From TrEMBL:
Belongs to the peptidase M20 family. GO terms for molecular function: hydrolase activity, acting on carbon-nitrogen (but not peptide) bonds, in linear amidines; metal ion binding; N-carbamoyl-L-amino-acid hydrolase activity. This is N-carbamoyl-L-amino-acid hydrolase. SUPFAM superfamilies: Bacterial exopeptidase dimerisation domain, Zn-dependent exopeptidases. Its cofactor is Mn(2+); Zn(2+). Zn(2+) 2 binds at residues 95, 130, 413. Homodimer. Its EC number is 3.5.1.87. Keywords: Hydrolase, Manganese, Metal-binding, Zinc.
Amino acid sequence: MKAICINSEVVMHHYAGLNSIGSINADLKNGFLRAPYSEAESEAIAYIEQAAIDGGLLCRRDLAGNLIAETPGTFSEWVETGSHIDTVPGGGNFDGAAGVISGLEALLAIHHSGTALKRGLRLRVWRGEESATYGVTSIGSKAAFGALNPAALQQTYEGQSLAEAMREQGVDPETVRSGLAAMPDAERDGITAFLELHIEQGKVLETADTDIGIVSAIRGSKRSWITVSGTFDHSGATPMGVEFRQDANLAMAYMLVELDQLLHKANAEGVDLVQTSGLINPSAKENSPVPLLDNAVTKVSGAAHFSFEVRGCSAPKVDRYCDQAFEVIRETAARFGVSVEIDTFSDQAGIEELDSEIQRLLDTGCTKLGLSHLSLPSGAWHDAGTVAEQLKSNGSPIPVGMIFIPCRRGISHSPDELSSPEQITKGASLLATAMAEIASNYRWWWFYSPPK
């Protein structure tokens, strides 16, 4: 394995260009807004495209508007990397962009190194990974594989449908509407490996003072709304006790505590899950089916409403845990004399294990580059997860790996999101080293997993 090192100055150069695209204000204090299929996202993609062309790469777009930059030459197999460059409203410029910049520089470094390639190299800049605007995750990567639900085209952001936004950016939504893949089958079948570099979006690497996270799996999520219905009564005239009060807020409070205890018990038994209730009695509109506006300081609460999300890499384990959690919720409701409705509105299965040979290759690459590293699951979904879900024509999965780099205090989706040029450079060097090994050696995996 030959080490390929990326210069941090090129990372700083690209950020000097991207920091002016989609920034909410000039000093970057309010972060960025590069919404999916917006002018800002298109401008950022165009910047990457020009940098790739200037470096001698070939560029094209697929039918979903994703950018593909690749090394010149005719190859039947390709080693790919990619990430996204859109942001959540008020987000930072490292979630996604760090992976795009690293992928670009990895391809350019290998291309100019004189490495004899047996497989071509590709960078994919996926459109619309973030769900904060249209409520749909990984729009571009799902559309590439024909996995985007056509109903997503009707989702709106600031009064504009996703289909309309696509058309404004020169993308025909009929490919998605017809259920067709934006990527040809032969191109999909030729992907030998796909690697994505991303900021961790957590504190594990920073806390451990570690350079690299080799991602072992990707957590999926199951999300539900829990609606608790009690009885509105006078707060002073109604005695305490369940025989008098059917207090929805009190029942909800007990549900949350008992769910926390249930999760800690599952973790202690070795089940890798996290759960969150991020919204509790969220502000209700006048026409909301949940009468939260009828609650008052002088009333026993008759209505409560909260979100319940469970994340885990194993879908069966998430489902089993949720069954237990829902039973705890129902039992608590019965104990407090209230009724409860559970509405599961999103269910994204996780990826139980990313490609083991790529994980071993990345481990070896870290040793070659002198980088400290550890193995960890990804708590967030990524386009790499969409790729890992796909099957080739012969029924085999696409081998996928992920590299995490630290981000300051684990902050993401915020103007305070930050990874240093040195942290990005270390990850980019590992990405380039691994991609070069796969691209230059037909039997690269034999060294890491010898045939039996």
